Prior knowledge:
By secondary structure, this protein is mainly alpha-helical. It has helices spanning 2-19, 33-39, 41-78, 84-137, 161-170, 180-183, and strands spanning 28-31, 142-145. It is rod-shaped and about 85 Å long.
Amino acid sequence: MRQTAQWIRAAALAVVFVTVPARADLKVGVVDMQRALNECDAGKKARDHVKAKFEKAQDQLKRQREDLDRLREDYDKKAVVLKEEERRNLEKDLENRSLEFKRKYEDFQRDLKRTDSELTAGIVDELYGLVRDYGQKHGYSLVLEASNGALLYNDKTTDITDDIIKLYNASPHHDGARSSKDKE
């Protein structure tokens, strides 16, 4: 499936090259948006924020998991001597705690993805705007994205990623590493 999508992108790109008037001054640039996001100052701040949130939540989940494991070990040791009703109650309690742990873990995963998206969406929008402006200002006919898998080869002299990162870091943007919630 992935190969099919890549072939479709390659075919679409070929169509673009065929439909662009044959000119001697065709200028093509390439930018790796993922690298630009990861290496610009705001992208680094966003990544650090997500990493800190991940580590904090991971520590909490680890402690809860250790408590759950300890309770399960205690139950396993006592199960043979417990009355039937006590054993069922402890089993039910362990099951409820296990489900609660699983829900917290899934909530954590969703929250982490949401936080990452919130922190990087504005940065990505600004980067795309800078690429568009850079391409127009420097006379590029096309600027292709390198990190999406459709670009199979490019001469490194066509790579403008470093220029885009420098422009982003120098631009008077709002602190892109903050979400709209943080700005309020």
